[in-house]
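CHAIN AND CONFORMATION:
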Amino acid sequence: MDSKRTKPFGPHIAMSGKRKQVDGVPHIMVVEARFYEDLVDELASGAIAELEAAEVSYERHEVPGALEVPAAIRFTVRGGEDPSASYHFDGYVALGCVIRGETAHYDIVSGESARGLQDLALTFGVAVSNGILTCESREQAWVRAATDRGNKGGRAARACLDMVKMKRHFGLFR
């Protein structure tokens, strides 16, 4: 990771608004798998624009790759089981990119990261969206990531907010 972006063992956090849910304002965790930094910067740009347009608060956290995203979210879900925990998020936006190479590693990383996110949603009832691109090439990834084209980061943020809205509709927040 770029030393300008993070300190060793310290997450990169950018917050907008209040840290905890106040007056019904959702607080969202954006988890960025930084393996393809340029692509993830573009995904994050789309996601952040969508979250700011919705006037919700958010925090950005970085992990090395797509396989680490579900674990990072699970850390906070576990903390969320304790009402006195310092971290509580109403929803989660997972961002990253997996590009097919010459080995089966692509299949493992793309499948297991998606399975991990789905397991979190089904097991813990969290509002999570999967903005981890799975592509054949960098060119294909850019078509999907670019905010003026596919804007998958923005779409992932909208999906997360829609799931937060659904949870509220059914009274599933503390």
About this structure: DSSP finds five helices and four strands in the chain. Helices lie at 37-53, 69-80, 105-124, 138-145, 152-169. The first helix runs from residue 37 to 53. The longest strand covers residues 91-99.
